[in-house]
Amino acid sequence: MSTTAPRLLQVRRSVRVTPRMVRVTLAGTELAGFGGDGPDRRIKMFFPVPGQERPAVPRATSGGPLWPPGEPRPAIRTYTVRRFDADAGELDVDFVLHEGHGPAAAWARDARPGAWVGVSEPGGRYEPDPAAGFHLVIGDETALPAVATVLAALPGGVPAVAFLEVADADEEQDLPGAADVRWVHRGDREPGVPLAEAVRAADLPAGSGQAWLSGESACVRDLRKHLLDERGLDRRRVYATGYWRLK
Ligand SMILES: Cc1cc2nc3c(=O)[nH]c(=O)nc-3n(C[C@H](O)[C@H](O)[C@H](O)COP(=O)(O)OP(=O)(O)OC[C@H]3O[C@@H](n4cnc5c(N)ncnc54)[C@H](O)[C@@H]3O)c2cc1C
User: Which pLDDT score is estimated for 3?
Assistant: First the structure.
């Protein structure tokens, strides 16, 4: 956890981006000074427990985070800064409404204007390598918010290809940038399997590429190994994060 206390923000509005993705716009006086610019910026979100209006958040002290005594601890999950607009004072987070009954997805499904949530300082180290011969971007629905920011940050004039697994055609989104985007539809198959098949079967551009990949953890592990061992990518140019675990 960062040394700064999480900011308490309120929902300004929420809209459906696709049938299974909701965009929640957060705002509030505590958003001032938020450092959310850049590709793939991650935040910890603190969700209230049922029956609670505001989540308990820790106070930053020199001895570490101090939780308010006697209050139930929030559910904490990691999400992506989809858009931060300092002038409008707005932070967008896109939530997949998955069927696993988690507290974060449930909160997003029901989020009404005025609902409170805590947000940490953003982290994340990914930057496009200007020397890369091509860019490879791989992910599932949970990765789409970050993928959008990664594609927007890629340099022009360098080949870029994205493999994106979603449930079906209704979950495809318009994405920025000039990458060759290949949508992979999961249908009834296990998450990550169609994505791994598509990447393994692909002809990739020549040269030494940089890869960004995220999604279901086992799939990410498998594809990272594939990119290193079978495609010969340099491990310093493969940026892989497991986002969730199929149980
Ligand atoms: C760096 C990072 C950035 C992320 N950014 C985003 C983002 O911008 N948007 C986003 O939607 N997610 C994002 N995620 C993924 C998100 O944190 C997880 O999906 C998280 O588990 C959701 O919490 P929950 O409370 O809804 O479910 P949990 O309580 O964590 O899990 C409950 C059950 O749901 C299952 N489950 C969790 N996620 C999924 C899923 N996507 N599909 C199917 N089953 C699932 C679990 O296997 C478990 O059985 C990100 C993760 C990381 C690490």
Answer: 58
Residues 185, 224 share a domain: yes
Whole-structure pTM value: 0.97
Ligand 1 centroid vs 89 CA: distance in angstroms?
Answer: 26
Domain edge (last residue) among 119, 150, 171:
119
- The segments of the chain whose pLDDT lies below 70 read 1-3
Based on the fold, state whether residues 156 and 102 are members of the same structural domain: no
One domain, residues 76 and 150: no
Q: Which two tokens stand for residue 194?
A: 């169609």
CA-nearest residue, atom 38 of ligand 1: 244
pLDDT on residue 1: 43
Tell how far the Cα of 203 is from the centroid of ligand 1, in angstroms: 30
**How does pLDDT run across 103-131, given as a tens digit for each residue?**
999 999 999 999 999 999 999 999 999 99
Is position 199 within any domain?
A: yes
142 Cα–ligand 1 center, Å: 7
